[in-house]
Amino acid sequence: MRYLTIAIPVSAWHHVDGSIDNSMAIDVVEGLIISTINGSCVRDAGWRAAAMPGVELDPHGWPPGDHPLQITLREEHWEWVIGELDRWRPYDDGELHDLARTLITAAIDSHAS
């Protein structure tokens, strides 16, 4: 099992979190439990990274949008995240999708070398 930590700005992580939340909501109804488990792991990692002492949080418990979150997940989870981002790509504005996907893909590629 290989773990990988990727720094992602909170604003881009919100996009990841929302995409994963959408996937989980549909997949649990469809009985795709592995997707729901993966989603729980990914979202929990984001929530844990956001719970930083000494950083002013917004009313929802998140740091400022430009603050980098250090998210640690298994490499397989990161690859799953890319697939879920691509799943929801037709329904978003693109900028945060592209940023999150670029950061994740670059980190996976450099980790593999």
Quickly describe the structure.
The chain has 113 residues and is an alpha+beta fold. The chain is 63% helix and 12% strand.
Task: Please report the distance between the alpha carbons of the first and last residues.
Answer: 16 Å
Strand order of the largest sheet: 1-2
The number of distinct structural domains comes to 1
Count of DSSP-assigned helices? 4
As a percent range, the share of strand residues is 5-15%
3D shape: globular
- The mean pLDDT is 93
Radius of gyration from the alpha-carbon trace, in angstroms: 14 Å
Largest sheet: 2 strands, antiparallel
Q: Provide the low-confidence segments as ranges.
A: none
The helix/strand series, from N terminus to C terminus, equals EHHEHH
**DSSP strand tally:** 2
The portion of residues assigned to helices is 55-70%
**Helix vs. strand class:** alpha+beta
